[in-house]
Design brief:
With about 325 residues, this protein is an alpha/beta fold. It has a domain of about 220 residues: Rossmann fold, CATH 3.40.50. The strands form four sheets. It has a seven-stranded parallel sheet, with helices on both faces. Strands 7-10 form a two-stranded parallel sheet. A two-stranded parallel ribbon has the order 8-13. Helix 5 runs parallel beside helix 7. It binds nicotinamide-adenine-dinucleotide (NAD) and uridine-5'-diphosphate (2 copies). Nicotinamide-adenine-dinucleotide binds next to helix 1, helix 3 and strand 5.
């Protein structure tokens, strides 16, 4: 491979056409790397990477990570997996296969190439937590047979595989646990609370709060999250994770609805629906580890991030003919 810079790497990003993956791909290209963006386009979209098609260091590969993959790269970011409850519950068996078989294949690839591999795990490994805020040494409170289990247990098993490949095959792993993240390029119909509320408000539809809106989440803006990913990968080999990456600012879902209403100048009204089964009551990351090991903390406040996300949906919805 011809290298213009010693530091230039060829990097594989699985799930690269998704919400988080596409932002990561942008940053890696900005840093001067070559990127293979792999995706089966199940929940991701070509729209997220349209702007990159003529980029000389960008390559798109349509592939499903549940099948083996033979490419030659220097580093792997494994993000492939549907992430919103609506999407991951659409085909739960495929969700578990993507997490588990996908992890095995990407770990097998990393083992053959002897390369570093990053993995996007999730705060869902903590389930409906009994420890608050969640620290990485908390083992979680997860229902193994409920509607969220395909994702939660799939992601837990993927973490197990990462740590076993690390112990058994001396693989350099980088596991982060991502807390709720939002921003431009979220899928407009993924059912997640931030995209739902914004899309509903911009269309003048009812804002659907599930339950009484007292459950909490902590929302991280996508740019902050991607910065955390890059710092994690750049950290020394002794840093394997798991490391929480998220914004510790905690809000009730009712508060989020009020913010979106105030920022969109909409006629929408709040309506209350049943709370889905196994919906976690509260969630907030303890980011001491990320702070200590990666010198990372989020910078974008929720108000600012919401405004940027609203601006994105204002632009995109007419293009999708959804307003
Ligand atoms: P997303 O749905 O936008 O992106 C996932 C991408 O993976 C999509 O482009 C999808 O088409 C692709 N994909 C799914 N199954 C695949 C398969 N079998 N083979 C190849 N590609 C496949 O979701 P996202 O929010 O960008 O999430 C990315 C990763 O981050 C996921 O692993 C998710 O579990 C994790 N995560 C995200 C959040 C969040 O708040 N966004 C929180 C916790 C964890
Ligand atoms: N694998 C892959 N690409 C590679 C090497 C391996 O997709 O370059 C897949 C392969 O299909 C295998 C899995 O990764 O099933 C796990 O590989 P590993 O070497 O750990 O296991 P083994 O091949 O011994 O079962
Ligand atoms: N939620 C809601 N209205 C919606 C979508 C979600 O009240 O239209 C709630 C949901 O029940 C949960 C929280 O918002 O309590 C976050 O949901 P999301 O699906 O975004 O993420 P997760 O539950 O995986 O954290």
């Amino acid at each position: 491979m011809t290298r213009l810079y010693d530091s230039r790497k060829r990097i594989l990003v699985t799930g690269g056409a998704g919400f988080l993956g596409s932002h990561l791909v942008d940053r890696l290209l900005e840093q001067g790397h070559e990127v293979i963006c792999l995706d089966n386009l199940f929940t991701g979209t070509k729209r997220n990477i349209d702007h990159l098609h003529n980029h000389p260091r960008f390559e798109f590969m349509r592939h499903d990570v549940t099948f083996p993959l033979y490419v030659e790269v220097d580093e792997i970011y494994n993000l492939a997996c549907p992430a919103s409850p609506v999407h991951y519950q659409h085909d739960p068996v495929q969700t578990t296969k993507t997490s588990v078989h996908g992890a095995i294949n990407m770990l097998g690839l990393a083992k053959r190439l002897k390369c570093k591999i990053f993995h996007a795990s999730t705060s869902e490994v903590y389930g409906d937590p009994h420890v608050h805020p969640q620290t990485e040494d908390y083992w979680g409170h997860v229902n193994p047979i409920g509607p969220r289990s395909c994702y939660d247990e799939g992601k837990r098993c993927a973490e197990t595989l990462f740590f076993d490949y690390h112990r058994q095959h001396d693989l350099q792993i980088k596991v982060v646990r991502i807390f709720n993240t939002y921003g431009p390029r979220m899928h407009h119909a993924d059912g997640r609370v931030v995209s739902n509320f914004i899309v509903q408000a911009l269309r003048g539809e009812d804002i659907t709060i599930y339950g009484d809106g007292s459950q909490t989440r902590s929302f991280c803006y996508v740019d902050d999250l991607v910065e955390g990913f890059l710092r994690m990968t750049a950290s020394g080999p002794e840093i394997t994770g798991p490391i929480n990456i998220g914004n510790p600012g905690e809000f009730t879902i009712g508060e989020l609805a009020e913010k979106v209403l105030a920022k969109t100048d909409t006629k929408s009204k709040v309506v209350y629906h049943d709370l889905p089964q196994d919906d976690p009551k509260q969630r907030r990351p303890d980011i001491t580890r990320a702070n200590t090991h990666l010198d990372w903390e989020p910078k974008v406040p929720l108000d600012e991030g919401l405004e940027r996300t609203i601006a994105y949906f204002r632009k995109i919805l007419p293009e999708l003919e959804l307003v």
